Amino acid sequence: MHVDIFTLFPEMFQGPFSESILKRAQEQGLLSIALHNIRAITTDKHHIVDDYPYGGGAGMVMKPEPIFTAVEAVYQGGPIILMSPQGRLFTQSVAHELAQEPRLTLICGHYEGVDERVREHLVTDEISIGDYVLTGGELAAMVIVDATSRLLPGVLGGEESILEESHSNNLLEYPHYTRPPEFRGWRVPDILLSGHHANIARWRRKESIRRTRQRRPDLFAKLDLSSKADQKILKELDEEQD
Ligand code: SAH
Q1: Which residues, including other chains, have CB under 8 Å from residue 219's CB and lie 6 or more apart?
Q2: Which of 5, 115, 151, 216 has the fewest CB neighbours in a 10 Å radius?
Q3: Which of 38, 82, 83 to mutate to test the pocket of ligand 1 (most atoms within 8 A of CB)?
Q4: Per the confidence metrics, is the pTM higher than 0.70?
């Protein structure tokens, strides 16, 4: 996957994109990221990228020409996505959708946002990472690149782990434990030490269902738990009363 990111602050991306899994993905050629400084393509002496809003009011608005020019200079297809608190909400299923694309173009707004003509005539999609307002789209773009690129084949290694993860099937993931088997008197559940794979799988399913029901009733409502095995788990959870 290739990602073109348009921003006024390319340095903001240096840390997150040059460590750990995203670093390795780029080294392996599974992911490439090009950061484009919108200010660098302006031709006027002062490299003006923003201006006062028509109609008055607080803050500055990013001008349309530098954004159009910057994107059009490198665009080679794929969705053009504006980071926006007014966009559709970014979820794991949107990450899966984006992970199918060979190329992504992400535009980061700043200040009060971008001139409406960018939204109307340049972008093909608008994404919000949550119902709050950031100072700029940079953190949103990092979140989207991070969550999307870890779904690309080969990036994580163990592909099966992706299917079991929180939000993959509207289920939150089961709890994890590692060594030592006892820490400050708190023991790892015996079943996980038993080596009995079927029992472990059932325990994990049950704990996933328990957590989802407790923490995210909205996700729980979407689950299909009609199988005999799941019905039995639900009955047990009711009896355990939590
Ligand atoms: N005045 C705008 C908000 C501007 S915030 C409004 O009320 O809608 C400045 C920039 O930060 C936005 O242009 C956008 O690119 C980014 N941004 C802010 N919150 C975001 C969010 N929740 N998700 C994605 N991008 C966001």
Answers
A1: 167, 170, 171, 172, 212
A2: 216
A3: 83
A4: yes
